[in-house]
Amino acid sequence: MIITLLLSLMLMAGLFLMLLAGVGFIQDTRFFSSAPKEVRDVIRPREERFKGAYAIGWSMAAFSVLLMIGAFIIGAWNGINNCFGFGQFFIRFIVMELLLKAFDILFFDWVLLCNAGFNFFPHFYPETKEVLGQYLFGYNRKTHLAHIIGSFVVAAVLGWICTIF
Length: 165
Known about the structure:
Blueprint: H1 2-26, H2 37-42, H3 53-81, H4 86-114, H5 120-124, H6 141-164
Helix pairs in contact: 1-3, 1-4, 3-4, 3-6, 4-6
């Protein structure tokens, strides 16, 4: 279970790195497609913050994707080496995915988006300071619910694939 929790932390680090790459360095409004409408309406397109910012951002984004994929590969490899059955794989992957979703909801949505006192988004997009607030929490609850339901399917498929090996 400790390995599963460490892999979940890898996923969380990867997701945060992806957010930082998109918001802080790449600053492309396409990264805000899942943001609340109020936030999307006030964000203006940006020029490159400094020479090389896009390259740093895209490198960070690529690394974050590799980090998150790596967490699942390590989880599968460790389970195969320890002769996990389908149930053990399923539990490992569902725990990883649900902890990642909890991190998304609690840290990204509640802490960074709804409590502007952390000043994450306003630091990069000052125009968002006025529209951020606790009233935004839960704006995407249907999407979160769909992701949670989909997590069970993904965990089952990954568990099944791992038991083949």
